[in-house]
Amino acid sequence: MPQLPQAILTVQMRGVWRLKFMKFNPNEETLMDRGPEAHTPELLESYHSSTYAWQPGMTDDDGNPMKLRISKSSLSGFGWCPYQYKANYIYNLSQEETEDMVRGTNVHAIVEHFWDAVKDVKDEAIELLEAGKERQSRRLLKSVIPKPPMPYLLGEDEVIDTWFEWQWNRFKVTQGYNWAAVGNEVSAHASIDVDVDLELEHMIVPVHLRGFIDTIFPDGDGGFVLMELKTGKWTPKKAKSMREEMQFYRLMLEEGNYMKYLPVTHWAWEFPRGWANGGTKAEWELEDTSTRKTSYAPRTVMNNIKKLVKAHITDSFEPAPKTWRGPDGETLTSCQMCSFMEICPAWATDEHEEEEV
Ligand code: SF4
Predict the structure, then answer these.
(1) Which of 114, 150, 219, 246 is the most exposed place for a label (fewest CB within 10 A)?
(2) What's the average model confidence in pLDDT over 284-295?
């Protein structure tokens, strides 16, 4: 059963209720409903013996050692602000849901639905294209994108339209061959041992890697292309962090022995709303994973994993506020968008100092 649309009301000035968010997911299940979905019993067991709140020496109820669980989001969250990571993943506190999060979830739900549903019409769309009936072919492909029962509120239509145009252009170039995703929201797991050098000792810490890969495409030559969809702004500087995110996915597939998606020969990202918030433009990029430009990514990602493991061992999660210039030259801070200011040591007021003043 597709999910029912979820509307979130918010009260505005003078007590008037207004619709704030509208969530629409046409898929049978949400990613959360799908559960761990590991492809081997060993990986499922490894997942169940892992926790984000890991501490050295931690065991489960039967006395078995626990592993540190790391996802792409938890790793990048730690890189963004270690204290925010601690609040989110160790204290298990939730960030307030933002418009960006709702928009991203709605667009991802449509893209997931598209790659599942397009299988039913793809062959007919190829026949129409080959017969020179381009408009009908395009209309048929687009018909699998469902309209929500009430209008989107956050500009999702425009983002979905841009994304669809990219898929349509690629369909025309490829004539539909090796065009469709072979992996759609792929649930991936891996278990690795991480060597960490501490001041006086060396530790080997078992880690469980966990994540969903947006889409995987065939490269037409026996290899695979990992694709990540983002609904935020795009600037060329983001390529570095995107490579690291994609390398995390590749590491999961390789260490988890997902042979049906190996080797990973390319990775790609698409930003159909890349123009937003001072971004340059809607953009997508494809990179060969064997070039010098991408060769640093495996070591960088492993170093980032080691830093996170070390922070857990030493219980060191310092707040790291960041500031930058907004699209109109205004100063923005990471803390303005953070739900944890009230508990964050970076914002703690010194009562004695206040009394002295
Ligand atoms: S308030 Fe700022 S420094 Fe503190 S946890 Fe949030 S982002 Fe980090």
Answers:
(1) 150
(2) 96
